[in-house]
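Supplementary Text 2. Reproducibility record for the structural model of the 409-residue chain.

All settings were left at their defaults, and a single model was retained for analysis rather than an ensemble. We include the record here because the model underlies the residue-level annotations in Supplementary Table 4.
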Amino acid sequence: MSPSHPSVARSALDFETLNAQYRRVRSATLAIASPLSAEDCQVQSMADASPIKWHLAHTTWFFETFLLDAFDAGYRALNTSYKVLFNSYYNGVGNKHPRSERGMISRPSLSDVLAYCSHVDAAIESFLLNADPKDREQIAALMVLGFNHEQQHQELMFTDLKHLLSINPLAPVYAANAPQPRAISASAIQWEAFEGGIVEVGHQPSTDFAFDNESPRHRVLLQPYQIADRLVTNGDYLSFMQDGAYSDHSLWLSDGWDWVQQSSIDSPMYWRQDEAHQGWQTFTLSGLKPIDLEAPVCHVSYFEADAFARWAGVRLPTEFEWEHAANARRGLKQLNDTAWQWTASAYLPYPGFAPARGAVGEYNGKFMNQQYVLRGGSCATPVEHTRLSYRNFFQPDKRWQFTGLRLAR
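Retained model, structure tokens:
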């Protein structure tokens, strides 16, 4: 998920406002980690996920690297080795520790990482009080980028933790009120019809923040289409499974069929057969729960979403159909608070896209290959982090995020 130099609201140029927002965002990150033990924060359950301890340190590293190191000549790092240890993928900044080995770093300890967070937090507060006025606009832009970067990691903390806890046979509970897609009254799908035509898509040039991959705004041609008013539910998806879809090669893309066969996939991620009651359960951050047939199906890959749409005799929407329909706000439910929605669109640059200069320009552009766009937002996405032009993206086999689907025809 991710940006470059965004536009910044005028109010954000007020450094008092920036300081208050900084404290809110950082506090929210710490709150996610607060119920966890040091052992919980250490483990990395797969290469796609990162330890909670690493998320805490990396979001701190972002502000240290792009604000303090760049603009505060008086700043002194707590530990210079953190520059490498907590870099993610910014080649322009320097060396990186391998992503797949983040869980092997037992030192610094969790208490050391929290001390690092406190060190940088104090330095940022002092820095904003004394920043050079000539750098004010650039600093504000980078601060707002840092807030949005951290909100992405807040969502990743939930999803990475869910994967970690799911592999524990004890099915441990993170929190009773943890994020989870909620059911709505799942009546038959209603189809919202649109005439299409030449429409504008992308971020509206304005005072609001957006990542660079949402721009520039441009025109696209849409054929007439219809889009479902709600997401596909667990009940819908169970019918797909019971019809033998995971054994029917004709429903799957070639790479998807290979993935199903090689990985022995037969259900969404976190679904488990309940042997005692002959039903299905799903692992959640609140523990193991019976499948709610009216809740949206979640943790499905692009391959599964595409196969379901083909089984249903329809298709996935393009990202431009999704955005056009969402902006019309005609009866569409579960737009950005339930599950990210796979689209049929490859993740590619918009016409005229150009990444920012410098290391922050690595945020989005270099990932524009072999990935698909998801739209909306999930139950784990911070509310103020969503917008209708937002472009999330993942490889087609990934499903540890809260990913679901909406149909089109």
